[in-house]
Amino acid sequence: MKRNHVVAQSAATPTAYCQWQLCARSHDQSRRSWTMLSMAVRVAQALSLHVPQPAFVVSPFEQEMRRRLWIAIGLLDVQASLDRASEPMILTSWLQSHPPTNINDNDISTGFQGLVQQSGYFTDTTFALMILKAQCIVRLLNVGDTAESPAMHMEARQAYVADFKQTSYQLLRNCYPESDSFHWYARRVPDCVYASLQLIALRPLQRNAKLITPSPIRGLGILKLSVDVLQKSQ
């Protein structure tokens, strides 16, 4: 029990550190946050955030909080890799093995001991699950020499991008952008992410001679797609 208490309290450390990372990334364009992110990953691994079932007992509430924290670290990891054209540190399989449950925040509390029920509707966690899908796709589109499962054929890369579009459509099918501002935001973000994934699929951040494309993109195709990403972001 003492170890469980220590582990639960220690989980606050990477949470605060991630908040600092978010601020540092927004206000500091140097490599500081990119370099120091590895510390958050190592602390998370020491707390067994990357495994579905840790070797110690955690409550359902703590389990959900640990999973949310883990995908937040994963998002920082993939954003840092995009900023610096480097490979992510976290594996796709580590994120896909135990995602957060699609529930509202008020469905669980610190003393909750029951079974967490997955919701089929738009919840407080749905947007995070959609972003989780996007960051997993980015990792699958990585063509670096140490990538875990590089997609070298353009057909496979386009299939990954289409998979994100289908998943986001399914997750957002019950949201109501006309009546809720957060729902409105959640409905708009996938368009920007989808355009960005298309750009990454066609032009990876790293060159690889093994990448197989049916035909090179000619003329202003890449520029038009890049402008589309900027317009959707705006």
Automatic annotation (TrEMBL):
Keywords: Metal-binding, Nucleus, Transcription, Transcription regulation
Keyword Magnesium set for record: no
Subcellular location as annotated: Nucleus
An MF annotation (GO) of this entry: DNA binding
Example GO BP: DNA-templated transcription
Domain Xylanolytic transcriptional activator regulatory: residue ranges: 26-88
Alphabetical list of Pfam families matching this protein: Fungal_trans
Transcription listed as a keyword: yes
Gene Ontology CC terms: nucleus
Protein name: C6 transcription factor
